[in-house]
Amino acid sequence: MKKMAKFISIVLIMAISISVAACSKSDVSDKVQNNKLQMIKDKGKLVVGTSPAYPPFEFVIGKGGKSEVVGADIDLSKKIAEKLGVELEISTMDFDTIIPSLNSGKIDIAVTGMTPTEERKKSVDFSDIYFEGVNSVVVNESFKGDIKNESDLKNLKIGVQKGSTQEIYAKEILKAEKVKSLNTVLDLVMDMKNGNLDAVIMSDIVAKINKKQTSGIKIIENIELKGDQSSETAAVALKKGDNEELLKEINSVIKELKDSGEYDKILNKNIDTASKVH
């Protein structure tokens, strides 16, 4: 009986030991799986998602007979990749597919002029803010209406980029009756020039660039847009929940660029480049 009891005890101890070891391995595996920073370093590449139709943040130029994606967000992405000691791969897509691509693991991070709204924070994590601006209203030079306030604006046929904070503002804050959403700002401007829209809401920096690039349009001055989505900020987006160490690295890059004034130089350089692209 004593021998049997001793045997049972040994079996139980071995079972517990195996169980603990298995749990330990599982915990280690989970930690490795959830350490996005280490995964990026292991593969030696940072895959960044962006929608290259939003100059000066991301846009396409011709270079050496080929198309190249450039912009302030691309330069920021390069700085992040340098900090991590890995290569940079840019993956282009429509803006409204960015968050699904993050959550599916198709891309590591998104750097695409994305504003960290409360709704988006439910789906993804965000870095510190790297850009702050305001929105503007663009119309054809031939536009005869009088837009002095939001009440005047809400009655017009308004164009906004699909999936943008301008779309949220127009539909949910302004509650405009006629809102048309398209994939790119250029599509919106062309649609407005063709008479299908009265006005397009976009970032003030983007509006100034489009005015330089496109004849026959103007920016409405002295109209104050209000509400949570009436201004524009931008942050890096990451898949929710597995990015603490990666987030620290990204925030350190953003802080360094902003504190040194280098981000302003990056932005101004790309404003100048985008203004010359036709």
TrEMBL record:
Domain of life of the organism encoding this protein: Bacteria
First and last residue of the signal peptide: 1-21
Domain Solute-binding protein family 3/N-terminal intervals: 45-274
SMART domains hit by this protein: PBPb
PROSITE patterns according to UniProt: PROKAR_LIPOPROTEIN (PS51257)
Keywords: Signal
SUPFAM superfamilies, alphabetized: Periplasmic binding protein-like II (SSF53850)
Protein name: Transporter substrate-binding domain-containing protein
Lineage: Bacteria, Bacillati, Bacillota, Clostridia, Peptostreptococcales
